[in-house]
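Deliverable D4.2, example record:
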Amino acid sequence: MLERQFLRKAELMLRHKCPICNGEFGPVYADPASDADAGTINQERYEMLGQQLDIYDKFKISWSIWLYKDIGMQGMVHTNRDSKWNRTIQPFLDRKKKYRLDAWGVHASPESEAAVNPLVEWIDQICPAAKEAYPGPWATERHVMRAVIQTFLSAQFSDEFAQQFEGMSLKELDELAHSFHFDECVQREGLNIVLTEHAPH
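Output generated by the structure prediction step:
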């Protein structure tokens, strides 16, 4: 099935023998702190990624995983949960999750959905064609959620995010930055094993 999807999307490039590079892909991983099944879920995602890279190997597709380093969603390397950075911003991350402010690594948010759903129903009622707006799989709900919650509302929280660092000394700010130092970070071993198996030798 994965190969069939790939062939459908790459049909034009393969037919014309164009080089192909996928430079932005990779799963969002479950968080062990909030999902009891995170280990199982993430193992399944490593296996799916491995199958995807098998296809890239077969068709000689160049690739670059997204992304190298982050705060624990996707990165090959990520900040430690106990780092000063993560401890400082965790309350803000919890609020983002509660209100579904992120468009990537989305979590269910009954509060946001209750606010948005009546608008979605109204739009679909007066303009059924809205459901087909590009990109097609999104439907109206994702377009509205992205425009209203994940673009407009999330931007209004930017000052609140910055205020978390207000009054910090240069030493404290340096400790925050040092949270991203390689020696302070955690490697996502399962992901790195899969990537190593498919990296050019």
